[in-house]
Amino acid sequence: MKYDLSFGSKVEKDLAESFDYYEEQSVGLGADFLLAVDAALSQIQREPLIFQKIYKQKRKVNLKRFPFGVFYVVVKHQVIILAVIHLMRDPQEWKKRKRY
């Protein structure tokens, strides 16, 4: 069963900033980053409950090749993506993110 995905208000900014950073490092690397995010989102959409809860109801999937995590919650048959952030960032950043 596929779950519906929705995105918190700060996720677009997370992605845009990270894409820009990687593109500045090497042309095309930003696109590779987005492909890694897309792969993680597909995995989450198919089987969101297989990933361990890491804080309250929040779960995390690590990206392949990039030191980022996709943080999310599952509410009924919906997955709400809260953050896509670097794993060395302050953990309070993703912990305080709400569902909107």
User: Number of DSSP helices?
Assistant: 3
Main sheet: strand order:
1-5-4-3-2
By CATH reckoning, the class would read Alpha Beta
Unreliable spans are none
How does the helix and strand content classify structurally? alpha+beta
Q: Count structural domains.
A: 1
What would you report as the Rg, rounded to the nearest angstrom?
Answer: 13 Å
First-last Cα distance: 24 Å
CATH topology name, in short, is YaeB-like fold
> Whole-number average pLDDT?
92
Quick overview:
The protein has 100 residues and is α+β, with helices and mostly antiparallel strands.
Q: Can you tell me about this structure?
A:
- 38% of the residues lie in helices and 29% in strands.
- The protein is an alpha+beta fold and 100 residues long.
- It has one domain: 2-Layer Sandwich (YaeB-like fold).
- It has a five-stranded mixed β-sheet.
- α1 runs antiparallel to α2 (29-46).
- The two termini are 24 Å apart.
Spell out the blueprint of helices and strands.
Layout (H helix, E strand, L loop, with lengths): L3 E4 L3 H15 L3 H18 L6 E3 L2 E5 L5 E8 L2 E9 L4 H5 L5
Helix pairs in contact: 1-2
Question: What keyword list fits this structure?
Answer:
100 residues, alpha+beta, YaeB-like fold, five-stranded mixed β-sheet, 3 helices, 29% strand
